[in-house]
Amino acid sequence: MKQGCTLIATLPNLANAEMVRNVLSCPDISEARINTGVSTLMSVDEVVATLKKLSTEYSKRIWVDLKGRQLRIARWADPRYEAIELNHQVEVVYPAKIYFRNGGCRNILRTRGNQILVDSPPQEAVGAGQSVNIIAKELDVIGYLTELDKQYLEAMSRQEMNGVFASFVERLEDLSDIAAIMPKAEIVSKIESLKGIELITKNRIGTLMAARDDLYLESGQNYSMLKHLETIIENDSNAICASRIFTSLEKREHVDLADFSDLTLMYNLGYRRFMLCDNICNYHFNEAICAWREFLNG
């Protein structure tokens, strides 16, 4: 039996109160996270007040996941005819590619500020809010906190909530930007790039998260990923292992052996805190909890 393991859930859209309560009432879930990139048709203050109420009602901490320098598409666009607009300005040294969440990628031909043109444009329009990754010889994402991030930090301060997941932490200044708005913030730094790995090899920055989906892509999609996961847990024995957990449920009814093997490997590396991603919690939560119990008792 596995000892000392805890599971964090990603909350479904707050508009679906029944699903949210199903997740928070689950005894296997110790904490929860909200993805601020998901629209709820609520103001930031309403969202944070709702989270505060739910946290109190279920006696479970809820973390607010800020987007930081995570690149997202700012508005719907048909890239055959117009530039793709991002939420941050970027500077790239070519060659450079952009990876979309549907698995496709394109060469970047030109950038200007937060706009990019791509080779062989996708036939389908690209959606506002969709996260993307740019892999380039060199990449600089200008700025860290988005305006929405700042609004969440201010609202959290008013509600006396301080749990922050900070995406794509790559510089000490990223944490300073958060602390400047919320001095009492308790920050979990999401390590999602090689710059993030470099940062933690040179600095102790508190609690870490191995955000495996983006980190695997950003680090070259190769065997070096295992070394990066070792680096994270060596720098923080309380680090969270996130993403790519039970993802076989997206294609089949039961968790496959590869998922159980992966989770066992992470456990053997030293990870004890795990987090389920959006899709699993939205569409396969009950099946994932059954698999989690099998893992613990195996």
The CATH architecture classification of the largest domain is Alpha-Beta Barrel
Mean pLDDT: 96
Low-confidence stretches: none
Number of helices: 10
Total beta-strand segments: 13
Strand content is 15-25%
> N- to C-terminal separation?
6 Å
Task: Describe the structure in your own words.
- Helix 2 packs across helix 3.
- The strands form two sheets. The protein has an eight-stranded parallel β-barrel, surrounded by five helices. The chain has a five-stranded antiparallel sheet with strand order 4-7-6-5-8.
- It is globular.
- It starts with 5 loop residues before the first strand and ends with a helix.
- Helix content is 36%, strand content 24%.
- The chain has two domains: 216 residues, Phosphoenolpyruvate-binding domains (TIM Barrel), CATH 3.20.20; 58 residues, no CATH class.
- It is built from ten helices and 13 strands.
- By secondary structure, the chain is an alpha/beta fold.
Q: How would you summarize this macromolecular structure in one to three sentences?
A:
This protein has 298 residues and is an alpha/beta fold. The protein has helices at 17-24, 44-58, 147-159, 172-181, 194-202, 212-218, 224-235, 257-269, 278-283, 285-297, and strands spanning 6-10, 29-35, 61-66, 84-85, 90-99, 105-112, 115-118, 133-141, 163-166, 186-191, 207-211, 240-242, 273-275. A hairpin with a 2-residue loop joins strand 6 (105-112) and strand 7.
